[in-house]
Amino acid sequence: MPKTVGPDFPIIITSYEMAMFDAKFLANYKWKYVVVDEGHRLKNTKCKLLRELRRIPMDNKLLLTGTPLQNNLAELWSLLNFILPDIFSSHEEFESWFDFSGKADEELEEETDEKKRVLVVSKLHAILRPFLLRRMKEDVEHMLPRKKEIIIYANMTEHQKQIQNHLIEQTFDDYLHESADIVLRRPGIKTKLNNLLIQLRKNCGHPDLFHSAFDSNSLYPPVDKLLEQCGKFQLLDRLLNALIKRNHK
């Protein structure tokens, strides 16, 4: 987190990793709202993210998740404990709410396992109802704009093509004169092929992912140097110039 951030700012958007890294900085402020996307990541009571978030002063908390009902009561309790620690303070007490072994024998003797499961689910829904705002896909789908997909192809530069050819030739040179079945039966061939795909993907991203152009002082290389080596960067440069002229967001 930049140390130049002043005391007045409306919002901070960050990732889980950066939130953990900047936990000390974030703890210096009292937050009006903290919204955690993919809130089910807090289901493990011992995870570092949950531990660091608890150190941050906050008035209101909101978890966004597609799977609020966990298969494990301990995981569900972890989410509720983060949201409302005063109400869901004890994991043991929370578990006891769903322990029906103490019911009178006559109540349970006729119940099947399926009925007990329905009873537990009903109680879970009753507990969650005051704290859960649920939105089904059919409730909001009509308000969403139609999906629009634009595919733009970026040609590789000569530098990228040279690296790609070198990677392919280096990997397959030993196998060119062997039959397909012998090659596929050879131990480790699958790992080597997977590794090749990863290297080819890196080359498409930018050749500097192989050999960094940064010097020993970690200075950025010239922008024109970055552009001339990568087709995607050249396409991005053209797009940004056009979008900026149109005041595109």
From TrEMBL:
Pfam families hit by this protein:
SNF2-rel_dom (PF00176)
Q: Which SUPFAM superfamilies match?
A: P-loop containing nucleoside triphosphate hydrolases
Q: Which residues form the Helicase ATP-binding domain?
A: 1-86
Q: Which domain of life is it from?
A: Eukaryota
Against Gene3D superfamilies, the record matches this protein to:
P-loop containing nucleotide triphosphate hydrolases, Tandem AAA-ATPase domain
> Which molecular function term from Gene Ontology is one that the record holds?
ATP binding
Would you tell me the protein name for this molecule? Helicase ATP-binding domain-containing protein
Recorded source organism is Aegilops tauschii subsp. strangulata (Goatgrass)
